[in-house]
């Protein structure tokens, strides 16, 4: 994937689904790093700006104020890659309720930065980003996956590979969720319920499972990220 800063402010706005005015406002507040200055003093933006805009949008979707978002972003290391920013966004988005939005083919094309072919639509559908409707130019889109799906369109991966990868992720994530739920039920919930008859105390333990969810997801994401790095190092060792 090309990581060069190659987008104008107008192109960045279209890809991110925001206005140019919003980008300039975020820049004045320090939410976005400055662009690279190219020929004719034109600012150029790259994947890092896109990922940061997606993270800001997700934090706003969660109800955070602009001041809270500023504090959140200040706590992040300044040298985070677009992939690291995408991971932060994924962790934030995991607490959002499942929602779908309608989007036209034209809107999707603006987010992708080009016209979408039927093969592109098939790939986005295979990734679970969208579903077709009776109108061939209108789609039901998962906004939480749209940013990732659009980026993956630029990766030369066959549709069959995407489907196989999605099956692996769904199968093993469901298995992990099932085993963790069983462990919590057998080791925490059932013993406590047998000892405690107070409905309020039982409800307290029930709420505990919900409070544990963010910690479990973050632990899984961290463990998976480390495992992927180890596997990639083993599969593609440095040649020098």
List the SSEs and their pairings:
Blueprint lengths: L8 H8 L3 H9 L7 E2 L5 E2 L2 H15 L4 H9 L7 H12 L7 E4 H8 L5 H9 L3 E3 L5 E4 L1 H10 L6 H37 L3 H37 L5
Antiparallel strand pairs: 1-2, 3-5, 4-5
Helix pairs in contact: 3-5, 7-9, 9-10
Structure summarized in a few sentences:
By secondary structure, the chain is mainly alpha-helical. The protein is 64% helix and 6% strand. The protein is built from 10 helices and 5 strands.
Question: Care to describe what's here?
Answer:
The chain is mainly alpha-helical and 240 residues long. It has three domains: 9-93, Orthogonal Bundle (Multidrug-efflux Transporter Regulator, Chain: A, Domain 2); 101-152; 161-235, no CATH class. The chain is 64% helix and 6% strand. Strands 3-5-4 form a three-stranded antiparallel sheet. Strands 1-2 form a two-stranded antiparallel sheet. α3 runs parallel beside α5. The longest helix has 37 residues, at 159-195. The two termini are 23 Å apart. The model has no long low-confidence stretch (mean pLDDT 83).
């Amino acid at each position: 994937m090309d990581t060069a800063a190659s987008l104008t402010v107008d192109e960045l706005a279209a890809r991110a689904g925001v206005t140019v005015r919003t980008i300039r406002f975020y820049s004045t507040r320090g939410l976005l790093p400055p662009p690279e200055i190219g020929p004719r003093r034109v600012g150029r933006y790259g994947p890092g700006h896109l990922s940061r805009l997606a993270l800001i949008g997700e934090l706003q979707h969660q109800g955070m104020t602009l001041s809270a978002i500023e504090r959140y972003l200040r706590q992040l290391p300044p040298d985070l890659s677009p992939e690291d920013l995408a991971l932060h966004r994924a962790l934030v988005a995991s607490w959002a309720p499942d929602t779908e939005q309608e989007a036209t083919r034209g809107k999707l094309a603006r987010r992708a930065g080009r016209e979408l072919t039927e093969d592109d639509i098939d790939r986005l559908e295979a990734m679970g980003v969208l579903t077709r409707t009776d109108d061939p130019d209108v789609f039901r889109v998962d906004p939480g996956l749209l940013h990732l799906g659009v980026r993956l369109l630029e990766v030369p991966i066959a549709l069959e590979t995407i489907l196989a990868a999605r099956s692996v992720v769904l199968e093993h994530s469901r298995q992990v969720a099932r085993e963790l739920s069983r462990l919590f039920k057998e080791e925490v919930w059932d013993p406590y319920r047998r000892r405690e008859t107070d409905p309020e105390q039982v409800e307290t333990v029930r709420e505990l499972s919900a409070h544990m969810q963010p910690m479990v997801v973050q632990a899984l994401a961290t463990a998976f990220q480390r495992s992927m790095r180890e596997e990639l190092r083993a599969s593609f060792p440095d040649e020098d």
